[in-house]
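Let us practice reading a record.
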Amino acid sequence: MTTPEIPRHRKNFNEPGHAHELTFSCYRGYPFLGAERCSQWLADAIHQSREQQQFEVWAYIFMPEHVHLIVRPLRKTYDIAQIRNGIKLPVARRAIAYLRRENSEWLRRLEVRKGPEVRYQFWQKGGGYDRNIIELATLQRMIDYIHMNPVRRGLVSQARDWKWSSAAVFEDRGVSPLRLDPIPPEWMVAE
């Protein structure tokens, strides 16, 4: 009996008009984004990538060891993997450079050896998760789910109190360190 081949990467669906809920994690679940500088590097990378790749950011949360972003590409033809990599790669480069400058013990923990070659992982290998969203009800459930992450973990009692989140903006009770784009009512694709 032969074992079916398991795909190495999940297929991305790059459909015009769709929103995407992207989830990706720090290497080995390390809480790198608990450091203010790393979260700021991530916000900077999202800002730069959104200009280059042309996408909107509708909602987000940066947890200590993972990220949820809800984005909508604006181009008719796009590659969500390129958008995700455009966000992740600059953060990894800055973090590794910082750890080298500081001669940090953390650098050893990020080593990945392949023969004589040594690389460093900031993000967990693979692209993470990409969920296409085409309905407003699904979008709202996703936003509620990501905003409640720090509450479920006991990190804050109110979602709006988590700094690196869009929750306070959604509740009209604060600002976000990352600029959000308005969600247009016409974004939905008919089934």
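A brief commentary: The chain has a mean pLDDT of 90.
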